[in-house]
Amino acid sequence: MNSLLLKAYAKINLSLDVISKREDGYHNLKMIMQQIDIYDKVTLIEEGNTAQIECNCSKVPTDASNLAYKAWNIMCTKYNIQKGVRVIIEKNIPIAAGLAGGSSDAAAVLIGLNKLWNLKLTKTELMEIGVLIGADVPYCICGGTALAQGIGNEITELKSFKNRLVLIAKPDIDVSTAYVYNNLQLSNVNDHPNIDKIVESIEKNDLYTLSKNMGNVLETVTIKKYDIIKTIKEKMINNGSIGSLMSGSGPTVFGLFDNEEDLENCYCEIKKFIPFVKKTKSI
Q1: Which residues pair with 36 in a beta bridge?
Q2: How much is the pTM?
Q3: What are the φ and ψ backbone dihedral angles of 67, each rounded to 5 degrees?
Q4: Could you confirm whether 11 is annotated as catalytic?
Q5: What structural domains and CATH numbers belong to the chain?
Q6: pLDDT surpasses 90 at 135
Q7: What are the tens digits of pLDDT across the range 81-92?
Q8: CB–CB of 189/232 below 8 Å?
Q9: Is the pLDDT of residue 1 over 70?
Protein backbone atom coordinates (compact mmCIF):
# COMPACT_ATOMS: atom_id res chain seq x y z
CA MET A 1 0.00 0.00 0.00
CA ASN A 2 1.50 3.30 -1.12
CA SER A 3 1.27 6.30 1.20
CA LEU A 4 2.70 9.78 1.49
CA LEU A 5 2.82 12.50 4.17
CA LEU A 6 2.94 16.15 3.08
CA LYS A 7 2.98 19.52 4.80
CA ALA A 8 0.38 22.04 3.60
CA TYR A 9 1.61 25.49 4.63
CA ALA A 10 -0.49 28.54 5.50
CA LYS A 11 -0.01 31.86 3.73
CA ILE A 12 -0.34 35.52 4.62
CA ASN A 13 -0.81 38.48 2.30
CA LEU A 14 1.97 41.02 2.71
CA SER A 15 -0.36 43.24 0.69
CA LEU A 16 -3.62 42.82 -1.18
CA ASP A 17 -5.09 45.20 -3.73
CA VAL A 18 -8.30 44.78 -5.73
CA ILE A 19 -7.93 46.35 -9.17
CA SER A 20 -11.39 45.85 -10.66
CA LYS A 21 -14.48 43.67 -10.72
CA ARG A 22 -14.74 41.31 -13.66
CA GLU A 23 -17.83 40.49 -15.73
CA ASP A 24 -17.73 36.91 -14.43
CA GLY A 25 -18.18 38.18 -10.85
CA TYR A 26 -14.57 37.61 -9.78
CA HIS A 27 -12.15 40.43 -9.01
CA ASN A 28 -8.81 41.25 -10.58
CA LEU A 29 -6.23 41.28 -7.79
CA LYS A 30 -2.63 42.28 -7.23
CA MET A 31 -1.14 40.85 -4.05
CA ILE A 32 2.01 39.61 -2.39
CA MET A 33 1.72 36.11 -0.95
CA GLN A 34 4.06 34.66 1.68
CA GLN A 35 4.12 31.20 3.20
CA ILE A 36 4.57 30.88 6.95
CA ASP A 37 5.70 27.96 9.10
CA ILE A 38 2.23 26.81 10.18
CA TYR A 39 0.96 23.76 8.33
CA ASP A 40 -1.63 21.04 8.10
CA LYS A 41 -0.37 17.46 7.80
CA VAL A 42 -1.92 15.70 4.80
CA THR A 43 -1.53 11.93 4.53
CA LEU A 44 -2.42 10.18 1.27
CA ILE A 45 -3.02 6.41 1.26
CA GLU A 46 -3.87 4.56 -1.94
CA GLU A 47 -7.06 2.69 -1.13
CA GLY A 48 -10.29 1.62 -2.83
CA ASN A 49 -11.70 3.36 -5.89
CA THR A 50 -12.91 6.70 -4.51
CA ALA A 51 -11.66 9.47 -2.24
CA GLN A 52 -12.28 9.30 1.49
CA ILE A 53 -11.62 12.50 3.42
CA GLU A 54 -10.88 12.36 7.15
CA CYS A 55 -10.14 15.37 9.34
CA ASN A 56 -9.58 16.06 13.02
CA CYS A 57 -11.64 19.29 12.74
CA SER A 58 -15.42 18.76 12.73
CA LYS A 59 -16.00 22.03 10.83
CA VAL A 60 -14.15 20.72 7.77
CA PRO A 61 -16.47 19.00 5.25
CA THR A 62 -15.49 15.46 4.34
CA ASP A 63 -17.72 15.13 1.27
CA ALA A 64 -17.23 16.15 -2.37
CA SER A 65 -17.29 19.84 -1.42
CA ASN A 66 -13.87 19.53 0.21
CA LEU A 67 -11.14 21.00 -2.01
CA ALA A 68 -8.93 17.98 -1.34
CA TYR A 69 -11.68 15.75 -2.79
CA LYS A 70 -11.95 18.06 -5.80
CA ALA A 71 -8.18 17.78 -6.31
CA TRP A 72 -8.41 13.97 -6.42
CA ASN A 73 -11.45 14.08 -8.72
CA ILE A 74 -9.90 16.44 -11.25
CA MET A 75 -6.68 14.40 -11.43
CA CYS A 76 -8.66 11.19 -12.03
CA THR A 77 -10.78 12.82 -14.73
CA LYS A 78 -7.94 14.58 -16.51
CA TYR A 79 -5.63 11.55 -16.65
CA ASN A 80 -8.24 8.78 -16.82
CA ILE A 81 -7.10 7.23 -13.55
CA GLN A 82 -9.30 4.87 -11.58
CA LYS A 83 -7.62 4.79 -8.20
CA GLY A 84 -8.97 5.66 -4.81
CA VAL A 85 -7.19 7.52 -2.03
CA ARG A 86 -7.73 8.09 1.67
CA VAL A 87 -6.86 11.69 2.60
CA ILE A 88 -6.21 12.27 6.29
CA ILE A 89 -5.98 15.95 7.17
CA GLU A 90 -4.54 16.98 10.52
CA LYS A 91 -5.71 20.59 10.80
CA ASN A 92 -3.40 23.16 12.36
CA ILE A 93 -4.34 26.08 10.11
CA PRO A 94 -7.57 27.72 11.33
CA ILE A 95 -10.47 27.50 8.87
CA ALA A 96 -12.20 30.55 7.31
CA ALA A 97 -9.24 32.60 8.49
CA GLY A 98 -7.67 34.17 5.39
CA LEU A 99 -4.72 31.75 5.57
CA ALA A 100 -5.59 29.51 2.56
CA GLY A 101 -5.83 26.32 4.64
CA GLY A 102 -8.26 24.52 2.34
CA SER A 103 -6.39 25.61 -0.79
CA SER A 104 -3.10 24.45 0.70
CA ASP A 105 -4.57 21.03 1.51
CA ALA A 106 -5.80 20.74 -2.10
CA ALA A 107 -2.36 21.74 -3.39
CA ALA A 108 -0.78 19.04 -1.22
CA VAL A 109 -3.14 16.45 -2.70
CA LEU A 110 -2.21 17.48 -6.26
CA ILE A 111 1.50 17.33 -5.44
CA GLY A 112 1.08 14.02 -3.61
CA LEU A 113 -0.97 12.30 -6.30
CA ASN A 114 1.56 13.44 -8.90
CA LYS A 115 4.18 11.49 -6.92
CA LEU A 116 2.03 8.48 -6.00
CA TRP A 117 0.78 8.00 -9.54
CA ASN A 118 4.13 8.86 -11.16
CA LEU A 119 2.53 11.40 -13.50
CA LYS A 120 5.76 13.44 -13.81
CA LEU A 121 3.84 16.73 -14.04
CA THR A 122 5.86 19.93 -13.72
CA LYS A 123 5.07 22.57 -11.10
CA THR A 124 3.62 24.78 -13.85
CA GLU A 125 1.33 21.98 -15.04
CA LEU A 126 0.15 21.36 -11.46
CA MET A 127 -0.56 25.08 -11.03
CA GLU A 128 -2.66 25.06 -14.22
CA ILE A 129 -4.73 22.22 -12.74
CA GLY A 130 -4.88 23.97 -9.36
CA VAL A 131 -6.65 27.06 -10.68
CA LEU A 132 -9.59 24.82 -11.68
CA ILE A 133 -10.02 24.04 -7.97
CA GLY A 134 -9.53 27.49 -6.46
CA ALA A 135 -7.77 30.80 -7.05
CA ASP A 136 -5.27 30.32 -4.18
CA VAL A 137 -4.28 26.77 -5.14
CA PRO A 138 -1.66 27.70 -7.78
CA TYR A 139 0.17 29.88 -5.25
CA CYS A 140 0.03 27.11 -2.64
CA ILE A 141 1.73 24.82 -5.16
CA CYS A 142 4.33 27.49 -5.92
CA GLY A 143 4.95 28.48 -2.30
CA GLY A 144 7.55 30.89 -0.93
CA THR A 145 7.22 34.58 -1.78
CA ALA A 146 5.21 35.50 -4.88
CA LEU A 147 3.26 38.18 -6.69
CA ALA A 148 -0.24 36.97 -7.56
CA GLN A 149 -2.38 38.71 -10.18
CA GLY A 150 -5.55 38.07 -12.16
CA ILE A 151 -7.99 36.30 -9.83
CA GLY A 152 -4.91 35.20 -7.89
CA ASN A 153 -3.84 32.58 -10.40
CA GLU A 154 -1.12 34.46 -12.30
CA ILE A 155 1.96 33.78 -10.19
CA THR A 156 5.37 35.43 -10.39
CA GLU A 157 7.96 34.03 -7.99
CA LEU A 158 9.88 36.70 -6.06
CA LYS A 159 13.12 36.75 -4.13
CA SER A 160 12.69 34.77 -0.91
CA PHE A 161 11.61 36.75 2.17
CA LYS A 162 12.06 33.83 4.55
CA ASN A 163 13.03 33.72 8.22
CA ARG A 164 11.15 36.88 9.19
CA LEU A 165 9.49 36.79 12.61
CA VAL A 166 5.70 36.69 12.36
CA LEU A 167 2.91 36.70 14.95
CA ILE A 168 -0.49 35.34 13.91
CA ALA A 169 -3.72 36.12 15.78
CA LYS A 170 -7.17 34.85 14.77
CA PRO A 171 -10.18 36.13 16.69
CA ASP A 172 -12.95 33.63 17.42
CA ILE A 173 -14.99 34.50 14.33
CA ASP A 174 -15.21 32.99 10.85
CA VAL A 175 -15.31 35.31 7.84
CA SER A 176 -16.95 34.45 4.53
CA THR A 177 -14.72 35.40 1.61
CA ALA A 178 -17.80 35.72 -0.59
CA TYR A 179 -19.37 38.18 1.89
CA VAL A 180 -16.26 40.37 1.90
CA TYR A 181 -15.95 40.58 -1.89
CA ASN A 182 -19.69 41.05 -2.38
CA ASN A 183 -19.64 44.02 -0.01
CA LEU A 184 -16.46 45.62 -1.32
CA GLN A 185 -17.17 49.09 -2.76
CA LEU A 186 -14.12 49.81 -4.89
CA SER A 187 -15.31 53.34 -5.66
CA ASN A 188 -15.02 54.12 -1.93
CA VAL A 189 -11.48 52.77 -1.60
CA ASN A 190 -9.09 55.72 -1.63
CA ASP A 191 -5.97 54.08 -0.22
CA HIS A 192 -4.46 51.37 -2.41
CA PRO A 193 -1.20 49.67 -1.38
CA ASN A 194 1.88 50.31 -3.47
CA ILE A 195 2.54 46.73 -4.52
CA ASP A 196 5.50 47.68 -6.72
CA LYS A 197 7.16 49.38 -3.74
CA ILE A 198 6.70 46.23 -1.67
CA VAL A 199 8.20 44.05 -4.40
CA GLU A 200 11.17 46.46 -4.44
CA SER A 201 11.45 46.15 -0.64
CA ILE A 202 11.53 42.36 -0.92
CA GLU A 203 14.25 42.56 -3.57
CA LYS A 204 16.29 44.77 -1.20
CA ASN A 205 15.44 42.60 1.83
CA ASP A 206 14.11 45.78 3.49
CA LEU A 207 11.66 44.78 6.24
CA TYR A 208 10.99 48.34 7.37
CA THR A 209 10.00 49.82 4.01
CA LEU A 210 7.88 46.74 3.34
CA SER A 211 6.09 47.07 6.69
CA LYS A 212 5.44 50.78 6.15
CA ASN A 213 3.81 50.15 2.76
CA MET A 214 1.68 47.08 3.54
CA GLY A 215 -2.03 47.40 2.83
CA ASN A 216 -5.16 45.30 2.31
CA VAL A 217 -8.21 46.94 0.71
CA LEU A 218 -10.47 44.15 2.04
CA GLU A 219 -10.01 45.62 5.51
CA THR A 220 -12.53 48.29 4.45
CA VAL A 221 -15.22 45.59 4.58
CA THR A 222 -14.07 43.17 7.27
CA ILE A 223 -13.04 45.72 9.90
CA LYS A 224 -16.35 47.53 9.45
CA LYS A 225 -18.13 44.31 10.43
CA TYR A 226 -15.59 43.07 13.01
CA ASP A 227 -13.93 45.89 14.95
CA ILE A 228 -11.79 43.36 16.84
CA ILE A 229 -9.49 43.19 13.78
CA LYS A 230 -8.63 46.87 14.14
CA THR A 231 -8.05 46.34 17.86
CA ILE A 232 -5.58 43.49 17.22
CA LYS A 233 -3.68 45.55 14.65
CA GLU A 234 -3.38 48.46 17.08
CA LYS A 235 -2.27 46.18 19.92
CA MET A 236 0.42 44.66 17.71
CA ILE A 237 1.78 48.04 16.62
CA ASN A 238 1.73 49.31 20.20
CA ASN A 239 3.58 46.22 21.40
CA GLY A 240 6.61 46.04 19.14
CA SER A 241 5.34 45.04 15.70
CA ILE A 242 6.88 47.12 12.91
CA GLY A 243 3.92 46.36 10.67
CA SER A 244 0.53 44.67 11.09
CA LEU A 245 -2.13 43.69 8.56
CA MET A 246 -5.20 41.53 8.08
CA SER A 247 -4.48 38.49 5.89
CA GLY A 248 -6.74 37.80 2.92
CA SER A 249 -10.40 38.46 3.66
CA GLY A 250 -9.71 37.98 7.38
CA PRO A 251 -10.16 37.74 10.20
CA THR A 252 -6.56 36.66 10.94
CA VAL A 253 -4.15 39.51 11.68
CA PHE A 254 -0.38 39.19 11.50
CA GLY A 255 2.48 41.32 12.75
CA LEU A 256 6.09 41.47 11.53
CA PHE A 257 8.95 41.79 14.03
CA ASP A 258 12.68 42.39 13.90
CA ASN A 259 13.59 40.75 17.23
CA GLU A 260 12.48 37.86 19.44
CA GLU A 261 11.93 40.02 22.54
CA ASP A 262 9.30 42.23 20.92
CA LEU A 263 7.66 39.15 19.38
CA GLU A 264 7.40 37.48 22.80
CA ASN A 265 6.08 40.63 24.51
CA CYS A 266 3.42 41.14 21.86
CA TYR A 267 2.45 37.46 22.00
CA CYS A 268 1.81 37.77 25.74
CA GLU A 269 -0.34 40.89 25.28
CA ILE A 270 -2.45 39.50 22.42
CA LYS A 271 -2.89 36.16 24.21
CA LYS A 272 -4.79 38.01 26.95
CA PHE A 273 -7.83 38.50 24.70
CA ILE A 274 -7.35 36.30 21.60
CA PRO A 275 -7.30 32.48 22.03
CA PHE A 276 -5.49 31.57 18.80
CA VAL A 277 -2.07 33.25 18.76
CA LYS A 278 1.01 31.69 17.15
CA LYS A 279 4.65 32.71 16.92
CA THR A 280 6.02 31.67 13.56
CA LYS A 281 8.22 32.82 10.67
CA SER A 282 8.12 33.30 6.93
CA ILE A 283 9.50 30.41 4.87
Answers
A1: 282
A2: 0.95
A3: -65, -30
A4: yes
A5: 3-157 (3.30.230.10), 165-281 (3.30.70.890)
A6: no
A7: 999 999 999 999
A8: no
A9: no
